[in-house]
Specification:
The complex is a heterodimer of chains A (117) and B (295). With 117 residues, chain A is an alpha+beta fold. In chain A, 26% of the residues lie in helices and 31% in strands. In chain A, α1 packs across α2. The model of chain A has no long low-confidence stretch (mean pLDDT 94). The two termini of chain B are 30 Å apart. The chains are: A alpha+beta (117), B alpha/beta (295). Chains A and B meet through α1, β1, β5 and β6 of A and β2, α2, α6 and α7 of B. β6 of chain A pairs antiparallel with β2 of chain B.
């Protein structure tokens, strides 16, 4: 249940950015989260409102893009889709691969209002 | 996860940064910015600061992770007994409640600081930073950080350590690495603990456990031992001796090291010529060489 800590950290970042850009309200927050980041998307979605209450992002919509698990093979050089507990090359089956995508836990984009309505 | 060196820019989000600038304004005073920062940026900055703190003193910092009861404290007790004359060791203990583990370590004559996390399921870099202020690190060679027993959450938080060790006791099942891939991927060393019980367990195959680890694209060493009986602990002790030596070499070369997780990331972070240089003096409102009054 470390998703609440992650959301609190997210809110800190969002507040700083909102402040820098003279935002009056944050409308949308886009995250990118891969399954190998260790954070669960549904848990982030549940924890977010608790962290956001009383902040400039209180009514923001949280949009989380789940990132695919992809690896590049160090042996054959090919890139392929993999699963969280089988990071093998989809082409030659070698285990010596590097993760290309799947461990992201990133604040990608923010949209906010800069005028009071 | 560092917003200045570009390691957050992955294959999946590259298209976002190759756009036409950061801030795009729309009608009605709406504005959008592309950020691409790790969600734990603040933690990661604190962790880098902790690492700097260790490096300044040539200390090797090791984070121990496992499920509760896998034998982290027993490993430390055996290690202190075996290497207590060779190295000065200090321990930071993370638990939800009690001072029990710190007391076990102090009973071995080693300074230990207990962090009681309350309901928090992991340690983070800020907690470790606070703990460092309460530990006398003069002359210390190795700091062990015993994380909260939990195979999920601790894997996501950099504490400022140089190496991660994930312990898997043989009573837990050899498929744990497949069930908890994140924490096993983060390991620089996997220790199969309580291995003296293998002879009475028919459902744990060390070769299978290792195979599950390899399937995570991990080449980490996997060692077996039984710390409470001092069985097969030599390989572990030699691994540790070698790491202490490597840390001293790195410090002399003004390099540092982040624990495993992703090879490309650690290469980026061990370098010295990107803008996020952890060897620059920090402009913090405090120094570590003076006594602290903590609130």
């Amino acid at each position: 249940m470390h998703e609440l800590s992650i959301c609190q950290s997210l809110i800190d970042q969002v507040e700083t950015l909102a402040n820098e850009n003279q935002a009056v309200a944050v409308k949308t927050i886009w995250l990118q989260v891969g399954p190998l980041s260790g954070a669960e998307v549904p848990l982030l979605e549940h924890a977010y409102p608790l962290a956001a209450v009383g902040t400039v992002a209180e009514n923001a919509q949280l949009l989380i893009e789940s990132m695919p698990v992809r690896v590049r093979c160090r042996t054959c050089g090919e890139e392929s889709v993999a699963s969280v507990n089988k990071l093998l090359c989809g082409v030659c089956n070698d285990y010596r691969t590097d993760l290309v995508s799947g461990d992201e836990m990133i604040l990608a984009k923010l949209e906010f209002d800069t005028q009071a309505h | 996860m560092c917003d200045t060196c570009g390691c957050n820019v992955t294959h999946g989000n590259q298209h976002l940064v190759t756009g036409d600038g950061k801030l795009a304004r729309t009608e009605d005073g709406k504005a959008a910015i592309t950020v691409l920062q790790g969600l734990l940026t603040e933690n990661d900055h604190q962790a880098a600061h902790n690492r700097q703190h260790f490096d300044n003193r040539e200390i090797l910092a090791i984070n121990l992770m496992s499920s509760p009861g896998a034998g982290k404290t027993a490993l430390l007790e055996a290690t202190i007994e075996a290497l207590g004359d060779e190295f000065s060791i200090a321990v930071i203990e993370g638990d939800l409640e009690t001072e029990n583990d710190a007391q076990r370590i102090r009973d071995k004559g080693v300074p230990a600081l207990q962090i009681s996390t309350g309901s928090a399921c992991h340690l983070d870099a800020h907690m470790v930073h606070d703990a460092l202020h309460h530990l006398d690190l003069d002359g210390i060679d190795v700091v062990f950080i015993e994380n909260v027993g939990n195979l999920v959450c601790p894997a996501s938080f950099d504490l400022g350590q140089h190496r991660n060790i994930t312990l898997l006791s043989v009573t837990e099942g050899d498929d744990k690495p497949a069930k908890y891939p994140v924490i096993f991927r983060a390991a620089d060393l996997v220790l199969l603990t309580k291995a003296d019980l293998l002879e009475v367990l028919d459902d744990f195959d060390p070769a299978k456990a290792e195979e599950y680890i390899r399937q995570l694209a991990s080449e980490v060493p996997v060692l077996q031992l039984a710390a409470r009986r001092n069985v097969d602990i030599d390989s572990w002790l030699n691994w540790l001796r070698n790491e202490v030596k490597e840390q001293r070499k790195r410090v002399k070369k003004k390099l540092t090291l982040r624990p495993a997780i992703q090879p490309e990331g650690s290469i980026l972070h061990s370098g010295h010529d990107h803008s996020h240089d952890h060897h620059q003096p920090h402009s913090h409102p405090h120094t570590h060489d003076k006594p602290h009054s903590h609130s």
